[in-house]
Amino acid sequence: MILLGDGEIELKVIEIDGEKVICKVIVGGEVSSKKGVNLPSEKLSVSALTSKDREDLSLGIKAGVDYIALSFVKSAKEINLLKALMKKKAKEIPVIAKIETLSAVKNFDQIIQSSDGVMVARGDLGVEIPLEQIPALQKEIIRKANLYARVVITATQMLKSMVESRRPTRAEVTDVANAIYDGTDAVMLSEETAIGRYPVEAVRMMTKIACQSEENLAKFCGRAGLGAEFGGAKTVPEAISLSAFQMSEELNAKAIITPTRTGYTTRLVSRFRPRAQILALSPVPNTVKKLSLVWGADAYLVPDMENAPDLMNLARNYAQKILKLKKGEVVVITAGLPITTPPNTNLVKLERI
């Protein structure tokens, strides 16, 4: 069986003649170029990192891309290979693993620990796995991404009707909102903006849904935030980030400030979905770019910090400058010391203006 275009067209193989495959159309439809081809009953030997991918990687590095997304990942080995290739080119671009195969689902824990983030790529995933299993699987992927403090993107057919229509269906609006309530960092449009008739309207609509959903986030996450289900802190950085979150909630802090070199502290705090604004301050340009996908984080490039007093002064000054704080308002600062040995979140401090 061969499926085309995220499974919308179904073909049955009748005969194979060299490189020619003769099929019978079981479920017909319109076929266009550059559509996906799936063989759900077969295990393919094709590597997730093809020669074309290697060419695209070189092009992406030259163009200065912020993230690399690897399609059809089957194991952590492919992520590690991609990172090794970038290391040879003296680059450390964060890698997003697209979860869209049964093998990726089975090896998910190893894949996510090797990656900088994951994408719930529901198009091909819905071909590889029965459709009725996708909702629970999506929730589980998002939950584990939050558990490991990794970025998670939810994608495919989120507002698909807007390819042809100015307005989405009610079900699509609910789908986008539920992904946000589940804890996704980002929601993504694909064909809606790539080939759709209303790309600008689709972006505006998704933005409106996201903003409205986040206003209600606390109602669905509960007082302890999304991190309540993580089973308590298992490391010092996790304990510190949890304390920073709890302090910000109890004292109605205006912001949680996370001076960081790698972005790790910011990601730990973000997974609790605090009501306070997250200000990420980093002297590393790539970290500032990387944090653009982390939920709730506003990242700023700052001068390098050599010691704890410098770090605290810088955090206070930027908070005042950005938030226009008033006397008596509270901010929480959490970071790692010594500053030069990240990731090592081990400090939390309350500052009252």
Task: Please describe the topology of this protein.
Elements: E1 2-4, E2 9-17, E3 20-27, E4 37-38, H1 51-63, E5 68-70, H2 76-88, E6 95-99, H3 102-106, H4 108-114, E7 117-121, H5 122-128, H6 134-147, E8 151-155, H7 170-182, E9 186-188, H8 191-194, H9 199-215, H10 217-221, H11 236-250, E10 255-259, H12 264-270, E11 277-282, H13 285-290, E12 297-301, H14 308-323, E13 330-336, E14 345-352
Helix pairs in contact: 2-4, 7-9
The number of helical segments is 14
Write out the strand line-up for the largest beta sheet, numbering strands in chain order: 5-6-7-8-9
β-strand number:
14
* Name of the CATH superfamily of the largest domain: Phosphoenolpyruvate-binding domains
Radius of gyration: 22 Å
Rough outline: globular
Largest sheet, if any?
Answer: 5 strands, parallel
CATH topology of the largest domain: TIM Barrel
Low-confidence stretches: none
Q: How far apart, in Å, are the first and last alpha carbons?
A: 66 Å
Oligomer: single chain
**What is the CATH domain class of the largest domain?**
Alpha Beta
Give the amount of beta strand, in percent.
15-25%
Assign a percent range to the helix content.
Answer: 40-55%
SSE string:
EEEEHEHEHHEHHEHEHHHHEHEHEHEE
The overall pLDDT average reads 89
What number of structural domains do the residues give?
Answer: 3
Can you tell me the CATH architecture of the largest domain? Answer: Alpha-Beta Barrel
